[in-house]
Amino acid sequence: MKYPGGIKQPVAKNINYGNRGTGLENDINITNQYYRDIKKAIIHKKPTPIQITKVNYKSRQEVIIKEAFFKAPSTTDYNGIYQGKYIDFEAKETKSNTSFPLTNIHTHQINHIKEVIEHGGISFLIIRFVQREQNFLLKGEDFISFLNENKRRSLPISFFMEKGYLISEKYNPRLDYLEVVDKIYFGGELNG
């Protein structure tokens, strides 16, 4: 790193992002807020549909939900609009160094990814390998192709290295996944 006056300072090589106290979802939420603030995209976390069955009303201002259940299976985690295209993706973390367990993605989510692609939308997965400190974007098409061609119960890290795209971690935006989306869906250049 160059500083004024030509003084060189050592740059930390092994920065541990895993201990920042934030998970993948938080990083994406902060990134999405940044994208909205600079008017680059409108992408939101989808709420999980629940049915509330028991509530404790301590006062008008203090209501405690005592019992609720999921109304219907949710689809994927995030959706929105970017460059005039519908964008929809699932975000997951794994502590494994070698693979991503497919049990983390449900059948209804796989079907939703297929439907988004069939209707011309952009769908993908963002997978964080926590121990490796790596984040990958995997196109929905490549994910579906893997499922159709393999009987494995996990996606090996080699598949992410071959078909996935590393997502840069930065200060702002924290997890710049739209930089990768630009490259693979809109023909932009990938920086770094």
Describe, in plain words, how this protein is organized in 3D.
- The protein is an alpha+beta fold and 192 residues long.
- The protein has a single domain, classed as Trna Endonuclease, Chain: A, domain 1, CATH 3.40.1350.
- Helix content is 28%, strand content 30%.
- The longest helix has 14 residues.
- The two termini are 15 Å apart.
Calculate Rg over CA atoms. 19 Å
Kindly report how far apart the N and C termini lie.
15 Å
Please work out how many helical segments DSSP would assign.
Answer: 5
Task: Please bin the fraction of helical residues.
Answer: 25-40%
CATH topology: Trna Endonuclease, Chain: A, domain 1
Shape: globular
Q: Looking across the biggest beta sheet, what order are the strands in? A: 1-4-5-7-8-10
CATH architecture: 3-Layer(aba) Sandwich
Unreliable sequence segments = 1-21
Write the SSE topology:
Elements: H1 24-37, E1 42-45, E2 50-57, E3 63-70, E4 78-82, E5 85-94, E6 99-101, H2 107-118, E7 122-129, E8 134-139, H3 140-149, E9 154-156, H4 157-163, E10 165-166, H5 177-186
Parallel strand pairs: 5-7
Antiparallel strand pairs: 1-4, 2-3, 4-5, 6-9, 7-8, 8-10
